[in-house]
Structure formats: structure tokens, C-alpha cells
Amino acid sequence: MTTSPIDPGAAPPNVPDELKDNVTITTLAKLLDPVYNWSRRNSMWPLGFGLACCAIEMICAASSRFDFARFGMEVFRATPRQADVMIISGTVTKKMVPTIVRLYNQMAEPHYVISMGACASGGGPFKEGYSVVDGIDKFLPVDVYIPGCPPTPQALLNGMIAMQEKIDQQSIANVAWYRKDDPTAEVVPTPVLGPDLVDIRQVDIIKAEAAKAKAETAVSD
Amino acid sequence: MTDTMLKTPEPSSTPDVYDNPVDEAIAALKKRYPDTVVDDSRENYSGVVVNANNIVEVAEALRDDLGFNYLSSVTGVDLIEDNKLEVVYHAYNIEKGGGAVVLHVQVDRDNPIVPSLVPIFPGADFQEREAWDMFGIRFDGHPDLRRILTWDEFHGHPLRKDWREPFYEADAKPFGSRWPGGSVHRAEEQNIYGKNVQYPSGWVPTGGEYEVETNMYEGVTISRDATPGLKTDKVIVNMGPQHPSTHGVFRMVVTLDGETIMGLRPVMGYLHRNHEKIGERNTFIQNIPYTDRLDYISSMSNNHGYVLAIEKLMGAEVTERAEWIRILMVELTRVVNHLWALGFLLNDLGAMQTPMLYFYIERELVLDFFEAAAGSRMMCNYMRFGGVAYDLPDDVRGQPIMQFLHDLIYDRIPKALEQGDGLMTGNEILRNRSIGVGYLSAEDAIAYSAAGPVLRASGVPYDVRRAEPYSYYEHLDFDVAVRYNGDIYDRFLIRMDEMRQSLRILEQVLPHLKATEGAPIIGSKPQYALRMPAGGEAYGRVENPKGELGYYVTAKRRSSNPERYHVRAPSFINLTALEKMTVGHKVADSVAILGSIDIVLGEVDR
What we know:
- Helices cover 33% and strands 8% of the residues of chain A.
- Chain A is mainly α.
- Chain A folds into 2 domains: 41-185, Rossmann fold (3-Layer(aba) Sandwich), CATH 3.40.50; 191-221, no CATH class.
- By secondary structure, chain B is α+β, with helices and mostly antiparallel strands.
- Chain B is 36% helix and 15% strand.
- In chain B, a hairpin with an 8-residue loop joins strand 16 and strand 17.
- The relative contact order of chain B is 0.13.
- Chains A and B meet through helix 2, helix 3, strand 4, strand 5 and helix 6 of A and helix 5, helix 9 and helix 19 of B.
């Protein structure tokens, strides 16, 4: 955690008694936060990005009966540069995940990730498959998980509202994207496809395993 | 109509009278190639075993002389006990209808080489690539034998029986670690990478693999001065997998001269979810919810194809009420699917969202009915072997069920169609953009194994419900919709026609539903612990809204898991003709042409 621009722990200056009801002592961050968060939560533009079955329910949630637009979310953007929230709507496969990570990295801060449905959250019914990523949270930081296979449009709306409540808790004093040193603001390395999916962050473990396997074969020889 | 279609099979010189063209064709083949075509002796296997070296001439004879000119399905099978790999071909007679001539080709498992059928049946293209990808069967003479569902560097051929996935637990469910003991041990907890990955022993990342999929562009020529007298380059444009018009995670690598498409390569596999590998681990009944997720807009039809295949295999009877309920569900699914297919197509043509939002209202009515009947809006998991899971609900949206269905079928959907017709069919922009664009001739449609509305819009009146009737379709009065121009506009119109025919069928189903109220909806046999009474192979096919959906299932006697489980996905095979349809048109048209095929990626990639 960091200190806000005006230290909240500082003693309030002397205020005459007759003015006490009319004066509020606060911080700049606390003054600005509601404004920032209100505008941010009510204009969450999702990336127009459908992966699988859940995308159909996402379209339903955007259509007239359920109507995202009531929450300021109806503007599906085709480019990540204009989007605020990425709804991972379906099964993430190994072939697709490099693209997803790249899209995530292309989204301007602040950006949020909603993991919609069982597959995106943990692999779902296809978890045991050989070309399925068992949960997008292995690669991207997820803000809200929505259970269901697929989640109904109501469930997606509920997840979006949870997202808004989460945004209400933010403070510009400590959000990652205004800070230089925060590790969460870093770019996620794009995974690559070798004989299987390679997470660049795990290259050292893979090399260690390979060395171990080599040693074992040397012993058995 | 085409020459190939109208060509009648040469009269068989044998004096025997065959009651169907399949037996006749098989007898003719055996007579013509006595040494290379022999009966399949395995229990409950139909068709013939063909020597691998002769498959091309046998296929040619089948197509040209015997009238079986439609190669519907090509798939591999791993016969690990005999140390063999098998390729199974299903060929149909477009003109006469009826069943399939099934050809089996067996090759050595260690050096599996089969001559490619692409020169005879171009529709085998993607399916042979899939068999190469999944089984490592090398198709000699295939023009472009690359992996299709996985990526090029992928290690191994995953559908071989001895290939194991990272989270491997056992060959078949229920896993011994979970049932009947009840203790839980999960393979995923043993994985040192904490992910669903594995690497070949001793493999070290070199950095070379970091440049992925550049070979997609190999062989695509870039020539300067494509147009004489004008200094232009051909450019390669990559569309997808994240593209708003590709209906999901589909990718097209398009070669352009100016705005004109010179070549198009579909790239798929971005939603490859290992349907078949998981399906072969599952028990029979566990596969039903997975079929929902193939073509996720029409899950009821997917259920239907699968239960038909298994019922064939186990020899189950379906109760009368269950059959009527199935037809009700499947035809409503067709309406829902086509409403959205047209919505998406118009979306691709620039009518942003509007037609979709109009059709969405009726779709929601049907989905509410599905939810009341099956418990889920989209993933219905509704059909069972020998019947359906639940009877119709008592009421939907506060209306008694029969009243609701009556309103839906006689009032709401026809009105929606009228409205859609009035708004779209005569629309000048729609007509200008779609008439004459994306032409596919009847010969090509058959050769490329196109199915469903794509085939019928090209003037081939082939519908599985009529050609090889299943369920009660032979008792129902409806017409096979057909259009003759083979362009986007006809593919638009034919979906309108088909919805009207579906309404006709639904109107006939309603009285039967009323008459059979209270009758059993499923046989008395327990399903959850199904063991196949006899081994063999079965191919169940239905006319799914996208086209012919087939399930090829083989099983051993007394087994509770399928030995081989293959899905002949219409969306996947319809894409084979995509390049043919798009070359010569403008790049903006490729989006509309793709929309007119109506693909669902869950089914394309499986």
C-alpha cells in the first residue's frame, strides 16, 4: 500500500466550532475517487470477443431482453485499444491463448478481465483435454469469475455488477496503472507454442526437468 | 442438375435383385475387384475392406459408375490390438438416397500411408488433414497435408490409443481413483508445471519456437506487378482469429490483388477442445452433454444424432411420445438456428444488429421453453438412449404448455418470418451484395461434400430427413427446400424456406403430442451403466440445421465406453468449399460468404 497525496493520518487543522458542520476534512484522493469510479464503472466497454458457447449468452445479455446498456456496457469494441473489460467467454485453447494474452496486453489501462463460465475459470468439462488451458487465470489476472456452463445472461449481469462494485473500491491513490513500480502493471509475457504450450515464465523449470530427464537416461544407460 | 447427378448407375450384370442401392454397389465392387474388396468380417460391421493401394480406383468406380458421388465422412481409427490404423469412408448416393457404402482401409500402424482421395473427392481435403493430425496417417498425394486442429510443432498424434494427455488418469471412465472407492486423486495435482502441459522427455526450449505459425504463409506467393501495366503487389491479409466477422475464433489468410481475393486459406483449431479424445474416455451417456457443446446454437439436434448412433449400436427402441417430443425439439432448434444464422448474415452485410434483435424475441421464447423442459437454455442435455430425459413441462411463461406451443407455432414464429421477409428479402442492399456472390455450382457442392442449406441452395435437393429417414420423418408431410443459384442470396432464401417447412412439421407434431400425453417417454432400461450388448460400428446421422451431422461410433462387446467416437461436423466440412466460393470476389464479400455458410466454431474445431 502507498500513502495518499494528503496523509489521512494528519491531525485536522483547527476549525472554528461554528463552521464544523459545513467543513469536511478529507483527502484529494477521497474527493476524486467517487468521480473517477462513477465514470469508470458506468462506461465499461467490453472487447467484442467471443470464444465459444458463452459468447452466445454474452450476445443475449447484450440484446433487448437483458440489455447490458442499462449499465453502460453495450458498446462492444472490436479493437482492444478502445476496450476496458475483456470477457473471456468460453474455452481457452492452447492455440488461442497467445492471441488472448496479446489482446490483453494491447488493452489500455485500466483494464479488467471477467472469466465467464466454467471453461474460462478452470477448464470446465474440457479440462482433461490435451489442448485446453485449465483456466485463463494461469495467464491473466482475473477480476470476476462467473460460474455456469454457460452462465445465463442474468449471471453475466450479476458478474458485471460485481465488477462495478469492485471498481467502487478503487482509489486513484493506489491503483496499479498510476504507479511505476507496481509489478501487476507489467505486461504478461505472451506464451508460445512448442511441442506443447510454453509459458515463458516457466522456461527455467522446463530446462531443469529436461536436465533431470537427461541425467536419468544417462544413469539407466 | 449436373451430369454426375443424373448419371444412372450402370445396370449390374449380376442376375441378383438387390432391394437397395448399397447392397448393389457393394456386390458390384466385389465383382469388379475380387481380390482387393472383401467383406468386413468383424461383428456388426457394414461395408467392405479395401486394399490401401486400390482405394483410389475403387473410389473412382464408386463415384462414376455406381452413383455414390458424395463422400460424406472420412475418419481414422486406431486398431492398436492389431497394430493397424484404419481409415473409414462413408459415401452416399445423392440421387437415390439411402444408406452409405462404407469403405475400410487398413494400414500398418508403424508406417501408415494411404493414397489421398482429394483428386476424386475434394471434400476429403480437411478430413484427411484431420486424420493426419489426429492419427498420423499419411495421405499420399494430398496437396497440402499439414496439421489442422493442433499446431505444426505439436508433439504426437493425440487420438492414437497410446498417446496420453497431460492430465491422463486412466483409459476409461469411471476412473478407478474416484469410483467406487470415493477417494479423489487428481492427475492435475501431480503436474509439476501446475498447468495442463507436458513436454517430450529432454525437450529444451530453444527460442526457435517463439516464432509461431509463420509457416502459414509458406507457399503463398507474393508477386510484383500482378496487374499488367500497373505497379501493384499482392498482399496477404490475415483475418482472425480475433475478428468481429469470423463468428468466433476462425482465421482466414487471404491473398489479395487490390481488393480482389486471389486465394484464401482457412485456419482452424482455435477452439479444438478434444471432443473425440474425451468422448473415447467417457461412458456412453457421459457424451450427451458434450454433444450439446458442438454446435452450441442447436444442441437438441446434436443430442439427436448421437442418441441415434448409440441406439443403432445397442438396438434400443424409442417410445412413441419420445419420438414426437424429439421432432418438436429438433425442428424448433432448426427455426432458432436459422433465425440467428440470418441475423448474423445480415450483420455481416452491414445491417448491424437490427435483424438479430428482431429475431431474438422469438428465439427467447423457444429458449424459455427449452429451459422449462430441459433445465437449461442452451445446453439442453435432453435426449437419452431410447427416449428423452423429461416430459414436457406443464407450463411455460405462465401459459399451459399446449397453448404456449400453439401460439408459438401458429402465431409468433410465422409473424416473425413475415416481418423478416418484409424487411429483408426485397431489400436492395441485401440483393446487391448477395446475388451472384459466392457462387457454388451443384457439381462443386457435391464434390466438396457440402451439406445442408449450402448444398440445397446449389440446386441439390438432398436432405437426410428424406434421403435416409430417421425418427418419424417418413410419416411427416414436408418438402425439401431447394434453390438453384448457389449464391449468398439463395442461401439466405433457403433458410427462410426451411423455417417454413419446419413450421409445417411442427403443426403436424402438435396433435400427436396431445394424443400421447402421459405415455412413457423413455424405455425401462437403465442408461447410466450401459454396456454394449454387442460390438460393432454405427453411424447415426441427422439433418442438423447446418447440414448432415454424423456420429461414427465403434464399441466392443460388453464395453461401457466407445472405442472410437467421431463427429462428422457439417460446419467443418462446409468450409472446404470456402476458397472455391470466395476467389475472385472482393475482400468484403468473404465476410458475407462465410456468414452464408453459417459455421459454429464449436463444431468446426470440436
